[in-house]
């Protein structure tokens, strides 16, 4: 830390108690200066030789036949006045980054200018600021911190602006040219790491910890100066905001601190880099936590909307854990914003080409399916509404959605038949992989019609049915080849009765146990019998396929299959 000594005389200021100080001299005190609770017994001549204001105050006191002068509004209070008074006496005083702002403001108040005495206090302070304080990184930060308590004097004297200029200019220099000391103790990894660092090189974010010690309004001014230059990486800006929130925002928000925390959150949000999805540097986890706090401290709606926009840009990076800290209504709002941003792409004629490479869209689809499976507080309506927000192209496979539906059915056994139908109507069984189909075929929580659909399309997959190009892979769904309303087979209650099926006949778990769904010979025995009752002849075809995969169906099977196809209609 840099410092400057002024004066050469020994300190002759003494006190007989905490609030009274004397300038020891052969001459008696002839002026009493009261500064707040402190009283100084001084001499007129040294004070008048350096201060225009003291000349006027002494003159006014003389007119009132008194030697008492009261100063109640001097910036820096009694400490700053004492340093100025000692300078007038030629007593040695030491100026540094901690006290120079107060002394500079007090000297301005006392009008200790060059027209009173050459080489006066204001001049000497300005020399020290330019040659010492503003050349030092740490001193500039410390001095900037002291300006807050001295407003508006420090602002009017442009001390705040000069400190910010000094700090921001040093932030923007090439890190390779830095020669001053700085604080950098953070250990970053994973999403918090900005760049790969050479242990011997100075990192791009060397300045973050020191700047984050500033009060929020000063921090905002520094960061805005840095951002306005256009020379700072947005990733470093975002990391600075994340670190500041971690440094100053408490884990739990108390009601009495809500106001200050509200200001902090609103300021941080206003400083977030405004970029598009491809160049958004703030992590989604950080943004979601900030959004959670914004509701707790009651920030303005415009700030919340701003955060929702930022979160929607990074939704594909979110985790289920991040989403679970929010109410489902807010999650719905975020997803809706994300979908709205993508809508213009979906309406493009080249949509399908876009989707093939759109990892963002697929990631959000998987995220919401996992969220639906994890949130135990969802109602049927909220489950359905959130699921329906996800576009079809975001779910090329419905395994995740099936898991979410199965979990909801397990958590809500009281659902009515119509509610189950509404829930299961979200799922396209043709988009289940063989593993999910095998599980669904034995799932007693699913409605009967859904089970039959699963069996039918799994049979198509296994037998390489000529109905479209059926995928035989156990990891791929059956690609749709017709409109949904023409392709999905629905077995209603009457059809079930005709083949002797009822809810009672689906009773025990043992009747549904069986092998995997890798081929027709692996279909669960109970499920196979159900299937054979609905489509006679398929069972024989399954058996013969073990010997020859090219065996043809019997006329009866063809007739039955043709009849079945005529009964197809939509599940909805």
Automatic annotation (TrEMBL):
Residues 29-97 form the BTB domain. GO terms for biological process: apical protein localization; basipetal auxin transport; cellular response to auxin stimulus; cotyledon development; flower development; inflorescence development; positive gravitropism; positive regulation of flower development. Residues 500-509 have a biased composition (Basic residues). InterPro entries: BTB/POZ_dom, NPH3/RPT2-like, NPH3_dom, SKP1/BTB/POZ_sf. Residues 542-563 have a biased composition (Low complexity). Pathway: Protein modification; protein ubiquitination. The keyword Manganese does not apply. Keywords: Ubl conjugation pathway. PROSITE patterns: BTB (PS50097), NPH3 (PS51649). Residues 499-572 are annotated as: Disordered. Residues 205-461 form the NPH3 domain. GO terms for cellular component: apical plasma membrane; cytosol; late endosome. Belongs to the NPH3 family. This is NPH3 domain-containing protein. It comes from Brassica oleracea var. oleracea.
